[in-house]
Write a structure and sequence with these properties.
eight-stranded antiparallel sheet, 614 residues, two-stranded antiparallel ribbon, alpha+beta, single chain, globular
Length: 614
């Protein structure tokens, strides 16, 4: 068969696979994962399509004499080995689940993913299950199961957690979930002794090939690094569209003076499964409701306390951001912002009947509006204000109570009276505008929190770091600044190329200083977030995008002298990644690390990918 024909067949089959995968993704949204897995991903015709593609690709590689370039051939073959491992797993692998409970004895079977039962060549018994929470919090940090393997006369004990797999005789046990009473554990089972080994060999071969690829003689990378200047210029036309709106004097809703509201922000609150400054709750609340951390020049603390102490004034404010024109129509509003009073009329809650519709996008927008309505309701009745810790004298467990919670009968009378009356007394002084007395009462509440908060209270340094983090978070205007600098420096570079010279020394120094300042700020911002959260800030989209911006700024500084357009491209990339970070969530929360992410591989995995992207 001719080389050209082999090439067309191999790449044609790759195109077919891509189209099939696109269709499968769409069908998965409609029919579900189980249907697509059975009829597409694991179907015999899909396996044959993969096998035919692999065979034709291998024949094309041999026919093209790629095997004479050993490292390149190794690189391609590594994918074939990985695919072979997947095929062996498909033929011989078994996956399922095992549900076991304490004191219910040993079991010798598990349920496969197709619903059929399969037998172990041994027995498995749950000795102990433990749910480990973060200190001073109800957020789970890890799940831990201790199991006993009974294999004939031999007894083996093993421990399984979210990032600790237990293996025995080719069977791999993964911690999946647990029973709510803490007495049972759900384990994922995998039996695939051959496919995993082959797949891992493929990945090792891939890694080795990539490393050797950079060192081989005649590599294009050597030529690239020896001559980094672009030989062909890029012609770009960029139009900036700016509009200036009319400025009208706006009537502000009632709010506390800024210095008083800021003192509220210095209180501790149990929020998002951790103890943090109330300022953090205020910023997240305002950003969630309005889309920005400020409203008409009022700080987030003024917004939060305004909704609580001046509810009648704020319920008429058009500050609830609504997504989707259909939801706006249901609420009877013209723009993007609704008032709290727009959600109800004489017939009741306006969005209730629309929740029965089958339009997925509409339901998502309705759920978003419902969430904001409920969030304001929780704040207004006080259930969002978990300000008062109580340490049980028997279990030493610390629980934080809100203004609306029912207090335990074991709470001492003096604490009970303080929790029930302190915020009412504050509200009374607010009505009297006695701000000095308000500040005194807030100091009393904070002293109560520090006295009864227990070991889970953040240290003074972490508390101060979070306040500093909130006050210095400027990622929203930062992406505009980066994109603007990138555009200006790109225009300057193009102008210099047209004139047949390089960028002037003065301009080069100025842009280098700007990139250095950006790098320093991102380093400071990411370090603060990591210190406050207690783990490397690489656990969600916002954090990974910020890290990618940091990598881009670093590489821009390193290669700016060798690569002529490093600064324009670097600033563009920084701006775009920070933009993506801010688009995902108006103010992404700092959270406890999920149990499944408690692994050093997380940091290595994310860092490698972000560096590669940069």
């Amino acid at each position: 068969m001719k080389n050209r024909v082999l090439r067309d067949i191999a790449f044609g089959l790759c195109g077919v696979i891509v189209v099939v995968l696109i269709c499968a993704t769409i069908m998965e949204k409609i029919y579900g994962t189980t249907f697509v897995t059975m009829h597409i991903y694991s179907s015999p015709w899909m396996v044959c399509l993969w096998a035919l593609t692999a065979i034709m690709a291998l024949l094309y590689l041999i026919k093209s004499r790629i095997h004479k370039r050993l490292i390149t051939f190794m690189l391609h073959c590594s994918f074939l080995v990985i695919l072979a491992g997947a095929f062996v797993t498909h033929l011989c692998g078994v996956q399922g689940r095992l549900h076991i409970r304490e004191e219910e004895g040993a079991v010798n079977h598990f349920v496969m993913n197709d619903g059929l039962a399969a037998d172990f060549p041994f027995e498995v018994e749950l000795v102990d299950f433990e749910l480990i929470n973060y200190k001073g919090s109800l957020a789970p940090m890890d799940y831990r199961s201790v199991i006993k393997i009974i294999d004939g006369g031999e007894v083996i004990e093993g421990e399984i957690s979210m990032n600790n797999i237990f293996s025995y005789r080719g069977y791999r046990f993964y911690q999946s979930s647990y029973d709510r009473d803490g007495k049972g554990s759900l384990l994922a089972i995998s039996f695939d002794p051959y496919g995993i080994a082959i797949t891992y060999c493929g990945y090792i071969l891939l890694l080795l090939s990539i490393i050797l690829f950079f060192f081989q003689r005649g590599s294009s990378y050597r030529a690239l690094f020896s001559n980094p200047l672009l030989k062909r210029g890029l012609v770009a036309a960029v139009l900036l569209m700016c509009g200036a709106g009319n400025i009208h004097a706006e009537e502000l809703p009632r709010a506390l003076p800024k210095h008083v509201a800021e003192r509220f922000g210095e209180l501790y609150v149990y929020h998002n499964d951790r103890i943090c400054p109330l300022e953090t709750l205020a910023i997240e609340f305002t950003s969630k409701i309005y889309g920005k951390p400020l409203y008409k020049g009022l700080s987030a603390e003024q917004v939060l306390t305004g909704w609580f102490f001046y509810y009648d004034s704020w319920k008429h404010e058009p500050m609830i951001k609504i997504k989707g024109g259909e939801v706006a129509s249901l609420l009877g509003i013209d723009g993007k912002f609704a008032r709290l009073t727009d959600f109800t009329d004489v017939r009741g809650y306006k969005l209730e009947k629309a929740m029965e519709l089958n339009d997925l996008q509409l339901l998502q927008n309705i759920n978003g509006a419902n969430e904001k309505f409920n969030l304001i309701s929780m704040l207004s009745v006080g259930s969002l204000w978990k300000l008062y810790p109580y340490q049980d004298s028997i279990s030493d467990k610390v629980t934080w109570f809100s203004l609306a919670d029912k207090l335990p009968s074991t709470m001492p009378d003096d604490q009970w009276i303080f929790v029930k009356s302190s915020m009412n007394y504050v509200a009374e002084k607010i009505a009297q505008r006695d701000y000095e007395q308000i500040l005194y009462l807030l100091d009393k509440i904070k002293a109560y929190q520090q006295k009864y908060g227990g070991d889970g209270m953040p240290s003074e340094s972490k508390y101060g770091a979070e306040i500093l983090y909130n006050d210095t978070n400027i990622t929203r205007p930062l992406f505009i600044f980066c994109l603007t600098v990138g555009l200006l420096s790109f225009v300057l570079c193009c102008r210099a190329v047209v004139r047949g010279r390089k960028m002037g020394r003065t301009e080069s120094v100025i842009y280098t200083v700007i990139v250095a300042m950006l790098f320093i700020y991102l380093t400071f911002h990411i370090s603060l977030r990591g210190y406050v959260s207690g783990h490397l800030p690489l656990s969600n989209g916002y954090e990974t995008m910020l890290f990618m911006a940091w990598c881009s700024a670093l590489f821009t500084l390193v290669i700016r002298k060798k690569f002529y357009l490093a600064i324009p491209f670097g600033m563009f990339l920084c701006g775009l990644t920070i933009l993506v970070a801010t688009l995902g969530q108006s103010n992404p929360r700092i959270t406890q690390l999920m149990p499944v992410l408690h692994s050093p591989w997380l940091s290595i995995h994310v860092v490698t990918i972000m560096v590669a992207y940069s």
